[in-house]
Amino acid sequence: MSIVYGPLKPADAARCAELEAQLFPGDDPWPERAFLAELSAKHIRYVAARDGDKLVGYAGIARLGRKKPYEYEIHTIGVDPAYQGRGIGKRMLTDLLEPVGDGAVFLEVRTDNVPAIKLYESFGFVNVGLRRRYYRVSGADAYTMRREAPSPARQ
Predict the structure, then answer these.
(1) Nearest-5° angle of CA 2, CA 74, CA 45?
(2) Do the Cβ atoms of 106 and 131 come closer than 8 Å?
(3) Per-residue model confidence as pLDDT tens digits over 73-99
(4) Between 32-40 and 13-23, two packed helices, what is the crossing angle to 10 degrees?
(5) Per the database record, which ranges form the N-acetyltransferase domain (predicted)?
(6) Who's near 153: CB < 8 A, 6+ residues apart?
(7) In which element (H, E) is residue 6 found?
(8) Which domains does the chain have, with CATH numbers?
(9) How much of the chain, in percent, has pLDDT values that exceed 90?
(10) Which pLDDT band holds residue 154 (cuts at 50, 70, 90)?
């Protein structure tokens, strides 16, 4: 397996929507137009993982606020089920967090998505709250997780 990482492109939106339908079937998966809107937004950045010409993963983060220190919110991370467990999500999360600098990062994750929770915890995210029925279609709950900005001594 030779996975190549780089920016997600508008031409990838249909494949992202296809993966969303596989990964989040009961939780209102994002359609192609949602990915196109995300990719055209000024302060949102997406990364992609590709196996040859095949998109096998995507991840996005948004910068919030107008003044430093900014906060960030991870919007989504998805990996093709056939490629899960190979470190692709970890690498994409690393790429998303690298330019964040001194900003805190937030995300929501289903309370029953243990692999994702463990991944986020390995990056220093902690559970800071519960959002009941966050996923409207399924009614599933989500944890809100936060990663504090690294202290100057840790950078």
Answers:
(1) 65
(2) no
(3) 999 999 999 999 999 999 999 999 998
(4) 120
(5) 3-150
(6) none
(7) strand 3-7
(8) 3-147 (3.40.630.30)
(9) 79
(10) very low
Pairing of strands 44-51, 54-64: antiparallel
> What is the three-class DSSP state of 135?
strand
Per residue in 17-29, pLDDT (tens digit) is: 999 999 998 888 9
Question: Under DSSP, is residue 31 helix (H, G, I), strand (E, B) or coil?
Answer: coil
Q: How far apart are CA 37 and CA 77, in angstroms?
A: 16
Question: DSSP letters along 40-78, please?
Answer: HSTTEEEEEEEETTEEEEEEEEEEESSSSSPEEEEEEEE
Q: State the Cα–Cα distance between residues 149 and 155, nearest whole angstrom.
A: 10
pLDDT per position as a tens digit, 97-145? 998 887 899 999 999 999 999 999 999 999 999 999 988 888 899 999 9
Which of helix, strand or coil describes residue 151?
Answer: coil
Say how many C-beta atoms besides its own lie within 10 A of residue 139's C-beta: 11
CA nearest to 79, candidates 54, 59, 61 = 59
Place of tokens 């359609």: 31
CB atoms within 10 A of CB 70: 18
What amino acid is encoded at 56 in this protein?
V
Which two structure tokens, joined as six digits, stand for 26?
A: 């009961």
